[in-house]
Protein backbone atom coordinates (compact mmCIF):
# COMPACT_ATOMS: atom_id res chain seq x y z
CA UNK A 1 0.00 0.00 0.00
CA UNK A 2 2.88 2.34 0.68
CA UNK A 3 4.17 1.51 -2.82
CA UNK A 4 0.84 2.49 -4.28
CA UNK A 5 0.94 5.73 -2.30
CA UNK A 6 4.42 6.57 -3.54
CA UNK A 7 3.39 5.76 -7.11
CA UNK A 8 0.45 8.03 -6.92
CA UNK A 9 2.61 10.87 -5.58
CA UNK A 10 4.99 10.52 -8.55
CA UNK A 11 2.30 11.36 -11.16
CA UNK A 12 3.01 14.67 -12.76
CA UNK A 13 0.35 16.98 -14.08
CA UNK A 14 0.60 17.68 -17.84
CA UNK A 15 1.80 21.03 -18.87
CA UNK A 16 -0.59 23.51 -20.31
CA UNK A 17 -3.61 22.20 -18.44
CA UNK A 18 -3.73 24.21 -15.29
CA UNK A 19 -7.33 23.58 -14.43
CA UNK A 20 -7.13 19.86 -14.93
CA UNK A 21 -3.88 19.73 -12.96
CA UNK A 22 -5.53 21.34 -9.95
CA UNK A 23 -8.29 18.79 -10.07
CA UNK A 24 -5.84 15.91 -10.28
CA UNK A 25 -3.75 17.25 -7.41
CA UNK A 26 -6.85 17.58 -5.21
CA UNK A 27 -7.84 13.99 -6.00
CA UNK A 28 -4.35 12.76 -5.14
CA UNK A 29 -4.50 14.44 -1.74
CA UNK A 30 -7.84 12.81 -0.96
CA UNK A 31 -6.46 9.43 -1.97
CA UNK A 32 -3.39 9.93 0.20
CA UNK A 33 -5.51 10.69 3.28
CA UNK A 34 -7.67 7.67 2.68
CA UNK A 35 -4.69 5.42 2.29
CA UNK A 36 -3.04 6.75 5.48
CA UNK A 37 -6.25 6.26 7.41
CA UNK A 38 -6.53 2.67 6.26
CA UNK A 39 -2.89 2.07 7.10
CA UNK A 40 -3.33 3.38 10.62
CA UNK A 41 -6.34 1.13 11.14
CA UNK A 42 -4.28 -1.93 10.30
CA UNK A 43 -1.41 -1.10 12.66
CA UNK A 44 -1.25 -3.42 15.70
CA UNK A 45 -0.81 -2.09 19.27
CA UNK A 46 2.54 -2.81 20.91
CA UNK A 47 2.71 -5.95 23.04
CA UNK A 48 1.65 -5.56 26.71
CA UNK A 49 4.31 -6.39 29.29
CA UNK A 50 3.48 -8.98 31.93
CA UNK A 51 2.64 -7.52 35.41
CA UNK A 52 1.33 -9.48 38.39
CA UNK A 53 -1.18 -12.11 37.34
CA UNK A 54 -2.05 -10.36 34.04
CA UNK A 55 -0.02 -11.66 31.05
CA UNK A 56 -0.04 -10.82 27.31
CA UNK A 57 -1.17 -13.99 25.59
CA UNK A 58 -0.25 -13.01 22.03
CA UNK A 59 0.12 -9.96 19.78
CA UNK A 60 -3.62 -9.64 19.22
CA UNK A 61 -5.45 -6.51 20.43
CA UNK A 62 -7.10 -8.60 23.20
CA UNK A 63 -5.42 -9.72 26.52
CA UNK A 64 -6.51 -12.49 28.91
CA UNK A 65 -5.94 -11.99 32.73
CA UNK A 66 -5.80 -14.89 35.15
CA UNK A 67 -5.79 -15.18 39.00
CA UNK A 68 -6.08 -17.82 41.72
CA UNK A 69 -9.24 -17.74 43.87
CA UNK A 70 -8.59 -18.97 47.42
CA UNK A 71 -11.51 -20.52 49.21
CA UNK A 72 -12.13 -19.12 52.75
CA UNK A 73 -10.83 -21.29 55.59
CA UNK A 74 -13.71 -23.03 57.32
CA UNK A 75 -13.80 -23.87 61.02
CA UNK A 76 -13.61 -27.63 61.50
CA UNK A 77 -13.80 -27.87 65.29
CA UNK A 78 -13.85 -25.96 68.57
CA UNK A 79 -11.39 -26.17 71.45
CA UNK A 80 -12.39 -25.31 75.03
CA UNK A 81 -9.82 -24.57 77.75
CA UNK A 82 -10.38 -24.18 81.53
CA UNK A 83 -8.49 -24.98 84.76
CA UNK A 84 -8.12 -28.63 85.72
CA UNK A 85 -9.35 -27.84 89.24
CA UNK A 86 -11.81 -25.18 90.38
CA UNK A 87 -13.67 -24.32 93.56
CA UNK A 88 -17.42 -24.53 93.85
CA UNK A 89 -19.07 -21.14 94.22
CA UNK A 90 -16.19 -19.25 92.59
CA UNK A 91 -16.56 -17.96 88.98
CA UNK A 92 -14.21 -19.76 86.58
CA UNK A 93 -13.07 -18.10 83.32
CA UNK A 94 -13.07 -20.24 80.16
CA UNK A 95 -12.04 -19.66 76.53
CA UNK A 96 -13.21 -21.42 73.35
CA UNK A 97 -11.53 -21.00 69.93
CA UNK A 98 -12.46 -22.06 66.39
CA UNK A 99 -9.84 -24.16 64.57
CA UNK A 100 -9.48 -25.44 61.04
CA UNK A 101 -8.78 -29.04 60.01
CA UNK A 102 -5.08 -28.76 60.89
CA UNK A 103 -5.60 -27.03 64.23
CA UNK A 104 -4.99 -23.41 63.19
CA UNK A 105 -7.05 -20.54 64.54
CA UNK A 106 -9.82 -19.33 62.19
CA UNK A 107 -10.03 -15.55 62.76
CA UNK A 108 -12.96 -15.24 60.33
CA UNK A 109 -15.21 -17.34 62.58
CA UNK A 110 -17.61 -14.88 64.27
CA UNK A 111 -20.59 -17.04 65.12
CA UNK A 112 -22.22 -17.79 68.46
CA UNK A 113 -22.58 -20.87 70.66
CA UNK A 114 -24.50 -22.24 73.63
CA UNK A 115 -22.93 -23.45 76.88
CA UNK A 116 -24.07 -26.46 78.91
CA UNK A 117 -22.62 -28.38 81.85
CA UNK A 118 -22.90 -31.72 83.60
CA UNK A 119 -23.42 -29.71 86.82
CA UNK A 120 -27.14 -29.01 86.70
CA UNK A 121 -26.81 -26.42 89.47
CA UNK A 122 -23.95 -24.51 87.82
CA UNK A 123 -24.35 -20.86 86.91
CA UNK A 124 -23.94 -20.61 83.10
CA UNK A 125 -24.05 -17.63 80.67
CA UNK A 126 -27.67 -16.48 80.31
CA UNK A 127 -27.31 -15.91 76.55
CA UNK A 128 -25.25 -17.44 73.77
CA UNK A 129 -21.58 -16.55 73.78
CA UNK A 130 -20.33 -14.66 70.71
CA UNK A 131 -17.09 -15.29 68.87
CA UNK A 132 -14.85 -12.44 67.80
CA UNK A 133 -11.85 -13.13 65.61
CA UNK A 134 -12.35 -16.82 66.26
CA UNK A 135 -12.42 -16.57 70.08
CA UNK A 136 -15.05 -16.39 72.83
CA UNK A 137 -14.67 -16.08 76.62
CA UNK A 138 -17.20 -16.64 79.38
CA UNK A 139 -17.45 -17.62 83.06
CA UNK A 140 -19.07 -20.62 84.75
CA UNK A 141 -19.72 -21.00 88.49
CA UNK A 142 -19.93 -24.63 89.56
CA UNK A 143 -22.09 -25.63 92.51
CA UNK A 144 -21.51 -29.37 92.81
CA UNK A 145 -18.23 -30.90 93.93
CA UNK A 146 -16.64 -33.70 91.90
CA UNK A 147 -15.77 -34.26 88.21
CA UNK A 148 -17.74 -31.89 85.97
CA UNK A 149 -17.76 -31.03 82.27
CA UNK A 150 -18.66 -27.99 80.18
CA UNK A 151 -19.77 -28.26 76.52
CA UNK A 152 -19.87 -25.49 73.93
CA UNK A 153 -22.01 -25.98 70.79
CA UNK A 154 -21.96 -23.54 67.87
CA UNK A 155 -25.22 -22.38 66.29
CA UNK A 156 -23.95 -22.66 62.69
CA UNK A 157 -25.61 -24.94 60.11
CA UNK A 158 -22.88 -27.51 60.73
CA UNK A 159 -22.78 -27.48 64.53
CA UNK A 160 -19.35 -27.68 66.13
CA UNK A 161 -18.87 -28.82 69.71
CA UNK A 162 -16.11 -28.81 72.32
CA UNK A 163 -16.07 -30.35 75.79
CA UNK A 164 -13.63 -29.89 78.68
CA UNK A 165 -13.59 -31.46 82.13
CA UNK A 166 -12.46 -30.24 85.54
CA UNK A 167 -12.47 -31.30 89.17
CA UNK A 168 -14.70 -29.16 91.37
CA UNK A 169 -13.71 -28.93 95.03
CA UNK A 170 -16.25 -28.14 97.72
CA UNK A 171 -16.13 -24.61 99.17
CA UNK A 172 -14.50 -24.30 102.61
CA UNK A 173 -16.90 -24.56 105.51
CA UNK A 174 -16.88 -22.46 108.65
CA UNK A 175 -14.91 -24.16 111.40
CA UNK A 176 -14.26 -21.38 113.91
CA UNK A 177 -13.50 -17.69 114.41
CA UNK A 178 -10.28 -15.89 115.22
CA UNK A 179 -10.93 -13.05 117.69
CA UNK A 180 -8.12 -10.50 117.58
CA UNK A 181 -7.99 -7.85 120.34
CA UNK A 182 -5.28 -6.29 122.54
CA UNK A 183 -4.04 -8.32 125.51
CA UNK A 184 -4.40 -5.25 127.73
CA UNK A 185 -7.02 -2.50 127.54
CA UNK A 186 -8.02 0.41 129.71
CA UNK A 187 -11.37 0.74 131.39
CA UNK A 188 -13.63 3.05 129.42
CA UNK A 189 -11.35 3.24 126.36
CA UNK A 190 -12.93 1.81 123.14
CA UNK A 191 -10.93 -0.82 121.24
CA UNK A 192 -11.47 -2.40 117.82
CA UNK A 193 -11.84 -6.18 117.84
CA UNK A 194 -11.31 -8.01 114.53
CA UNK A 195 -13.11 -11.31 113.92
CA UNK A 196 -11.98 -13.62 111.09
CA UNK A 197 -13.94 -16.61 109.78
CA UNK A 198 -11.68 -19.69 109.38
CA UNK A 199 -12.10 -23.33 108.36
CA UNK A 200 -11.23 -26.40 110.41
CA UNK A 201 -7.53 -25.89 109.59
CA UNK A 202 -7.71 -22.26 110.80
CA UNK A 203 -7.36 -20.96 107.24
CA UNK A 204 -9.27 -17.72 106.49
CA UNK A 205 -12.39 -18.01 104.35
CA UNK A 206 -12.35 -14.88 102.17
CA UNK A 207 -15.81 -15.53 100.70
CA UNK A 208 -17.56 -16.06 104.02
CA UNK A 209 -20.51 -13.79 104.64
CA UNK A 210 -23.08 -13.87 107.36
CA UNK A 211 -23.59 -12.72 110.92
CA UNK A 212 -22.40 -13.67 114.39
CA UNK A 213 -23.52 -12.81 117.92
CA UNK A 214 -21.28 -11.12 120.51
CA UNK A 215 -21.29 -11.45 124.30
CA UNK A 216 -18.82 -10.53 127.05
CA UNK A 217 -18.03 -11.58 130.57
CA UNK A 218 -18.06 -7.86 131.41
CA UNK A 219 -21.79 -7.28 131.82
CA UNK A 220 -21.15 -3.52 131.89
CA UNK A 221 -19.19 -3.53 128.62
CA UNK A 222 -20.47 -1.65 125.61
CA UNK A 223 -20.49 -3.77 122.43
CA UNK A 224 -22.75 -4.54 119.43
CA UNK A 225 -25.15 -7.47 119.74
CA UNK A 226 -24.04 -8.87 116.37
CA UNK A 227 -21.61 -8.27 113.53
CA UNK A 228 -21.84 -8.88 109.77
CA UNK A 229 -18.96 -10.46 107.86
CA UNK A 230 -17.66 -8.97 104.61
CA UNK A 231 -15.03 -10.98 102.72
CA UNK A 232 -14.64 -13.21 105.75
CA UNK A 233 -13.98 -10.42 108.27
CA UNK A 234 -15.93 -8.34 110.78
CA UNK A 235 -14.91 -5.54 113.14
CA UNK A 236 -16.57 -4.73 116.48
CA UNK A 237 -15.91 -1.72 118.71
CA UNK A 238 -15.91 -2.74 122.37
CA UNK A 239 -15.57 -0.66 125.55
CA UNK A 240 -14.88 -2.60 128.74
CA UNK A 241 -16.00 -1.12 132.04
CA UNK A 242 -14.89 -3.60 134.68
CA UNK A 243 -11.22 -4.06 135.66
CA UNK A 244 -9.73 -7.54 135.65
CA UNK A 245 -9.64 -10.43 133.18
CA UNK A 246 -12.54 -10.16 130.74
CA UNK A 247 -13.52 -12.18 127.65
CA UNK A 248 -15.37 -11.66 124.39
CA UNK A 249 -17.32 -14.55 122.82
CA UNK A 250 -18.39 -14.86 119.18
CA UNK A 251 -21.14 -17.31 118.22
CA UNK A 252 -22.12 -18.04 114.60
CA UNK A 253 -22.78 -20.68 111.96
CA UNK A 254 -26.04 -21.93 110.50
CA UNK A 255 -27.00 -23.59 113.79
CA UNK A 256 -25.17 -21.09 116.00
CA UNK A 257 -22.82 -23.82 117.17
CA UNK A 258 -19.54 -22.20 116.03
CA UNK A 259 -18.09 -20.50 119.11
CA UNK A 260 -14.79 -18.67 119.72
CA UNK A 261 -13.59 -16.70 122.75
CA UNK A 262 -10.71 -14.31 123.42
CA UNK A 263 -9.60 -12.81 126.75
CA UNK A 264 -7.95 -9.53 127.73
CA UNK A 265 -6.79 -7.80 130.89
CA UNK A 266 -8.86 -4.73 131.62
CA UNK A 267 -6.88 -2.16 133.58
CA UNK A 268 -8.52 0.57 135.59
CA UNK A 269 -7.80 4.04 134.31
CA UNK A 270 -5.13 5.64 136.51
CA UNK A 271 -6.46 8.42 138.70
CA UNK A 272 -4.43 11.50 139.55
CA UNK A 273 -4.09 11.97 143.31
CA UNK A 274 -1.30 14.54 143.49
CA UNK A 275 1.06 16.80 141.56
CA UNK A 276 4.80 16.43 141.34
CA UNK A 277 7.22 19.31 140.56
CA UNK A 278 10.38 19.39 138.58
CA UNK A 279 11.99 22.42 140.28
CA UNK A 280 15.70 23.08 140.95
CA UNK A 281 16.73 22.83 144.58
CA UNK A 282 18.32 26.27 144.40
CA UNK A 283 17.56 29.23 142.18
CA UNK A 284 18.90 32.74 141.88
CA UNK A 285 16.76 35.63 142.98
CA UNK A 286 15.32 37.64 140.10
CA UNK A 287 16.29 35.02 137.51
CA UNK A 288 13.37 33.27 135.70
CA UNK A 289 13.27 29.47 136.05
CA UNK A 290 11.20 26.88 134.14
CA UNK A 291 9.03 24.61 136.30
CA UNK A 292 7.29 21.38 135.17
CA UNK A 293 4.22 20.04 137.00
CA UNK A 294 3.11 16.40 136.50
CA UNK A 295 -0.16 14.75 137.59
CA UNK A 296 0.58 11.40 139.33
CA UNK A 297 -1.45 8.58 140.87
CA UNK A 298 -1.16 7.14 144.37
CA UNK A 299 1.94 5.17 143.35
CA UNK A 300 3.59 8.28 141.95
CA UNK A 301 3.13 7.19 138.30
CA UNK A 302 2.29 9.85 135.71
CA UNK A 303 -1.35 10.03 134.63
CA UNK A 304 -1.34 11.06 130.95
CA UNK A 305 -5.12 11.21 130.85
CA UNK A 306 -5.28 14.07 133.35
CA UNK A 307 -6.33 17.40 131.86
CA UNK A 308 -7.78 20.64 133.10
CA UNK A 309 -6.57 23.70 135.00
CA UNK A 310 -5.05 24.30 138.42
CA UNK A 311 -4.19 27.37 140.46
CA UNK A 312 -0.59 28.27 141.26
CA UNK A 313 0.65 30.08 144.39
CA UNK A 314 3.95 30.75 146.17
CA UNK A 315 5.12 31.61 149.64
CA UNK A 316 7.13 34.37 147.93
CA UNK A 317 4.44 37.01 147.61
CA UNK A 318 6.76 39.09 145.43
CA UNK A 319 7.40 36.24 142.99
CA UNK A 320 6.31 36.55 139.39
CA UNK A 321 4.21 33.56 138.25
CA UNK A 322 0.90 32.81 136.49
CA UNK A 323 -2.16 32.43 138.70
CA UNK A 324 -3.33 29.29 136.87
CA UNK A 325 -1.84 26.55 134.70
CA UNK A 326 -3.42 24.20 132.11
CA UNK A 327 -2.55 20.49 131.95
CA UNK A 328 -2.20 18.74 128.60
CA UNK A 329 -1.38 15.04 128.61
CA UNK A 330 -0.99 15.15 132.38
CA UNK A 331 1.67 17.89 132.33
CA UNK A 332 1.89 21.69 132.73
CA UNK A 333 4.82 24.09 132.24
CA UNK A 334 5.25 27.49 133.94
CA UNK A 335 7.94 30.16 134.23
CA UNK A 336 8.55 31.54 137.73
CA UNK A 337 10.79 34.38 138.96
CA UNK A 338 11.41 34.42 142.71
CA UNK A 339 12.12 37.78 144.36
CA UNK A 340 12.68 36.94 148.04
CA UNK A 341 15.76 35.27 149.48
CA UNK A 342 15.47 32.10 151.49
CA UNK A 343 13.44 28.94 151.23
CA UNK A 344 10.32 29.43 149.18
CA UNK A 345 7.36 27.17 148.40
CA UNK A 346 5.43 26.64 145.16
CA UNK A 347 1.92 25.14 145.42
CA UNK A 348 -0.52 23.97 142.72
CA UNK A 349 -4.15 22.99 143.40
CA UNK A 350 -6.67 21.58 140.91
CA UNK A 351 -10.13 23.02 140.58
CA UNK A 352 -13.44 21.15 140.76
CA UNK A 353 -13.43 20.39 137.01
CA UNK A 354 -10.02 18.71 137.30
CA UNK A 355 -10.72 16.29 140.12
CA UNK A 356 -10.89 18.83 142.91
CA UNK A 357 -8.68 18.89 146.00
CA UNK A 358 -5.59 17.55 144.22
CA UNK A 359 -2.53 19.53 145.17
CA UNK A 360 1.20 19.44 145.28
CA UNK A 361 3.99 21.48 146.85
CA UNK A 362 7.65 21.94 146.10
CA UNK A 363 10.35 24.06 147.74
CA UNK A 364 13.54 25.69 146.58
CA UNK A 365 16.31 27.85 148.06
CA UNK A 366 16.40 31.33 146.61
CA UNK A 367 19.84 32.90 146.85
CA UNK A 368 21.72 35.92 145.67
CA UNK A 369 23.49 36.04 142.36
CA UNK A 370 27.24 35.86 143.12
CA UNK A 371 29.48 37.66 140.69
CA UNK A 372 33.17 36.99 141.04
CA UNK A 373 35.62 39.50 139.70
CA UNK A 374 39.07 38.27 138.82
CA UNK A 375 41.79 40.90 139.24
CA UNK A 376 44.76 40.57 137.01
CA UNK A 377 48.19 40.53 138.69
CA UNK A 378 51.01 42.80 137.53
CA UNK A 379 53.62 41.19 135.38
CA UNK A 380 56.75 40.04 137.21
CA UNK A 381 59.85 42.13 136.72
CA UNK A 382 62.86 40.48 135.24
* Shape, principal axes of CA atoms: elongated
The count of β-strands is 26
The helix tally amounts to: 2
Chain-averaged pLDDT:
83
CATH topology description of the largest domain: Immunoglobulin-like
* CATH-derived architecture of the largest domain: Sandwich
Q: Order of strands side by side in the largest beta sheet?
A: 4-10-9-6-7
SSE ordering: HHEEEEEEEEEEEEEEEEEEEEEEEEEE
Q: How far apart, in Å, are the first and last alpha carbons?
A: 155 Å
- Largest β-sheet summary: 5 strands, mixed
Number of domains: 4
**Sequence stretches where pLDDT stays below 50 over 5 or more residues:** 1-19, 34-39, 49-57
Give the class from helix and strand content and strand pairing: mainly beta
Helix percentage range: under 10%
The CATH fourth-level homologous superfamily of the largest domain: Immunoglobulins
- DSSP strand (E) fraction? 35-45%
The CATH first-level class of the largest domain comes to: Mainly Beta
Kindly provide the radius of gyration, computed on alpha-carbon positions and rounded to a whole number of angstroms. 55 Å
Topology:
Layout: H1 2-9, H2 18-42, E1 54-55, E2 64-65, E3 77-81, E4 85-87, E5 91-99, E6 112-117, E7 129-130, E8 135-141, E9 146-154, E10 161-169, E11 176-180, E12 184-186, E13 191-198, E14 210-216, E15 226-229, E16 233-238, E17 244-252, E18 258-267, E19 274-278, E20 282-284, E21 289-296, E22 308-314, E23 324-327, E24 331-336, E25 342-350, E26 359-367
Parallel strand pairs: 4-10, 12-18, 20-26
Antiparallel strand pairs: 1-2, 3-5, 5-8, 6-7, 6-9, 9-10, 11-13, 13-16, 14-15, 14-17, 17-18, 19-21, 21-24, 22-23, 22-25, 25-26
Helix pairs in contact: 1-2
